[in-house]
Write a structure and sequence with these properties.
Layout: E1 7-13, E2 22-28, E3 34-37, E4 44-45, E5 67-69, H1 72-77, E6 86-89
Antiparallel strand pairs: 1-2, 1-6, 2-3, 2-5, 3-4
Bound molecules: zinc ion (ZN).
Residues 14, 16-17, 21, 38, 40-41, 43 line the site of zinc ion (ZN).
């Protein structure tokens, strides 16, 4: 078991479906650029959402070529570690992006 690759980095609660979804740190498969997305409602944000949001975009807006879960290494490289508030296990946690347009399951950072 390799626990380190089975974690989901969460930056806070989803403002669109609070109590259900979370703002999960994800990365473009093309550029490894970090952004935030909720697996429950399929919304995505360039910066961590807080409070009311008036912009709701699909992940494809930030990652036209697809996206994957961000790894701790990606987040560290981008200098965004201060933004993440907790981790969740991939299984049964907030990492279930199956069915969200553009999600590439199992894609690894280089
Ligand atoms: Zn949501």
């Amino acid at each position: 078991m390799d626990a380190s690759s089975d974690e989901v980095l969460v930056a806070g609660e989803c403002p669109v479906c609070p109590g259900v979804g979370a703002a999960v740190m994800v990365a473009s498969v093309e550029s490894a650029e970090i952004f935030f997305a909720c697996p429950d409602c399929g919304c995505a944000w360039r910066t961590p959402p807080s409070g009311a949001v008036d912009s709701v975009d699909p992940p494809s807006r930030f990652a036209p070529a697809g996206f994957r879960l961000a790894h701790r290494k990606d987040v560290e490289t981008a200098g965004l570690l201060p933004l993440f508030v907790r981790t969740e296990p991939l299984a049964g946690g907030s990492g279930d992006f199956e069915g969200i347009d553009g999600f590439v399951a199992g894609a690894e950072a280089g």
